[in-house]
Design brief:
The chain contains 1 helix and no strands. With 49 residues, it is mostly helical. Keywords: Membrane, Transmembrane, Transmembrane helix.
């Protein structure tokens, strides 16, 4: 029984990592996009005043 849970843990961990990698890449891209968007809005409102 313990052997079954031990062999299952690395598979679940690898699956989690494989699922997490595209999510992190998407978050990184979204973060850069949001930073660019906020900076454009901030610079636009700053130039108006």
């Amino acid at each position: 029984m313990t052997t079954h849970s031990v062999t299952r843990a690395p598979a679940a961990h690898f699956d989690f990592h494989a699922l997490l990698r595209p999510v992190l890449t998407g978050l990184r891209f979204t973060g850069h996009f949001l930073v660019a968007l906020v900076s454009v809005i901030f610079l636009g409102s700053a130039s108006e005043h």
